[in-house]
Amino acid sequence: MPIKCKFCDKPAFIKLHYPKMYLCEEHFTEYFERKVKRTIERYKMLKPDDRILVVVSGGKDSAVTAYVLKKFGYNIECLHINLGIGEYSEKGERYAKKQCEMIGAPLHIVRVRELLGAGIGEVRTRRPTCSYCGLTKRYIFNKFAYDNGFDVVATGHNLDDEASFIFNNIMNWNTQYLAKQGPVTPSAFNGKLVKKVKPLYEVTEREVVAYALANGIEYEIDECPHARGATTLEWKAILNEMEEKRPGTKINFVKGYLRKKHLFEAELEEAELRECKVCGMPSSGEVCSFCRFWGLEKPVDFRIKP
Ligand code: Q46
Ligand code: ZN
Ligand code: ZN
């Protein structure tokens, strides 16, 4: 006899460990969406009339974020940043297009190589690839949102991403990073830093994979070639092992961190921000790290051409 769903007679599609229960596809979808809705409300992420920019990579997390927000009736548009990392990026772009077509959301595409003359991984620099990749992505989606008047940027970070980020930064005592992490980053610097939210903050990676499967969402499975050997993956493996032994470890760890975040905030030395001489965006030095890294002499204009 197959195991049945907790709420109906259908066979179970997934076994959840925390809370422990078996659910069919439909009841799992309902459960997942209720959880995301509660996260959005709890942290006051979105207002009904907000113009939301969802950053879609082609992967599962951002695809599910866009899908769920659209299903909830939010006003979303998507942005895909093609990083120029060979076949990995080409595939990512194809999936992003497919995902946005599926939900009927407008998709904007920025290609790093066309925009800046080189793809990620093609720049001769001492800076680690993931470091300038992260810097480039964050700058592009923020400036794109600002240039086009979006109220908020939504990203696909899930509970596993958050837990491993916090774990990693506690192990290294990076209190500066720990002071700034969270489900919502409010708008700052006269709106030039656009509000950021993470609607999947309280759902696990495993739940995101199951939701995509249950709802026919296709996504890129390949890992970025630069991610190999990343310590984040090792922290994730440790947390998964703990979660296996003690269900609820991840969510309790992240919620505990949010309760204690003020301790890290007290230590934060806020760098005085000023306008970048090149692009006018917030910067701790005369020229912001994006304009400096890419050697720009004039700002990049992301306004959507009509
Ligand atoms: S930072 Fe590094 Fe990722 Fe950029 S280079 Fe690839 S692995 S994509 S999340
Ligand atoms: Zn059911
Ligand atoms: Zn700049």
UniProtKB/TrEMBL annotation:
Q: Give me the residues that bind Zn(2+) 2, please.
A: 276, 279, 288, 291
Q: For Zn(2+) 1, which residues are the binding ones?
A: 5, 8, 24, 27
Q: Which Gene3D superfamilies match?
A: HUPs (3.40.50.620)
An annotated Gene Ontology molecular function = tRNA binding
InterPro entries under this entry? Ncs6/Tuc1/Ctu1, Rhodanese-like_dom, Rossmann-like_a/b/a_fold, TilS/TtcA_N, tRNA_thiolation_TtcA_Ctu1, TtuA-like_LIM_N
Record key words, sorted = 4Fe-4S, ATP-binding, Iron, Iron-sulfur, Magnesium, Metal-binding, Nucleotide-binding, Transferase, Zinc
- State the GO CC annotations: cytosolic tRNA wobble base thiouridylase complex
Ranges for domain Rhodanese: 16-97
Needs which cofactor? Answer: Mg(2+); [4Fe-4S] cluster
Q: From which domain of life does this come?
A: Archaea
Share an example GO biological-process annotation for this protein: tRNA wobble position uridine thiolation
Protein's UniProt name: Rhodanese domain-containing protein
The organism is Thermococcus gorgonarius
